[in-house]
Input
Amino acid sequence: MEISKKSKSIKNNRLAKHLPSSVVQQLFILATWIALLIIFSLADPHFMKMGNIVALLLASAVTGIQALGVTFAISTGGIDITPGLGMAMTGVITAMMMVTFHLPIWVAVLIGILSGAVLGWVNGLLIAGFGMQPMIATLAMMLVCQGVALILSGSKPVYTTDQAGFDQIARGTQILGIPNAVWIFLLVAVLSWIILNKTRLGRYALAMGSNEEATRMSGVNVRRWKWGVYVLTGCFTGLSGVVMASRLSAAQPATGQGYEMYAIAAAVIGGASLTGGRASIVGTVLGALIITTINNGLQILSVPDPWQKVFLGVVVIVAVLVDVYRQHNQQKAK
Output
């Protein structure tokens, strides 16, 4: 029996040795998500019903799109906490373009995404142009977004129910019965993977996060590329605002608060380091699914909202502690 156990252990060690650490980490995250699905399914049979799975996937689309954008900001060693209230602002702008100015849906959607890009441009100006701390700059812009959303909407929801076809952006089911928002999320994830792994923007973002001074000394225009990263993150915020407004058939100026924490938590759970230099798009997608599954599962179990916030807060703390532990091990290895 002992020989069998030893043989199995040796095989596992060999497997771990031959797999890259990033793959092992992603497999662990995947196993965690599957374990959560099993636990919530056993706790309540309604959890695995098709209607709830669709709701879970729809929620993960918004959180996931934001998390993918935040992943780029984190990879530079920065942070962006505007996605939550930025989503409210861009959603209101998108809805008003259709309802107030009677623009075609595709034009309104484009303006909504561009308004997110403008938000990212301003974030980049403050951080890369004026040298402000990313946390302070984006905190200030988060409040600006909230104010703009409330001013433009008159502090009231902007309903889009009479805009035929707009709700299909998120809730339509064109392929395999899966909501379009989920396909948009997956498409953005593929695009993000290409940008992070195959383009100069992604390579420079990781390089800046690892050692900004060394990256600058190697001839990279750090200011310009970092600015570009925040514009990209803003585009993702704009897209999440469009998807959320479509999903609700209304732009809610008061929505979005707390979403930034879900996005940051998803990126960190997925393997992004808060000190920069390391990020994983696949990991972020799984991180978003984990956050949404926990949220959905706790709602199914009728856990009171305050306790849901406590639980998710603990998950964020654990994710950050795991990141600190990883950094500590890396420094020891050096």
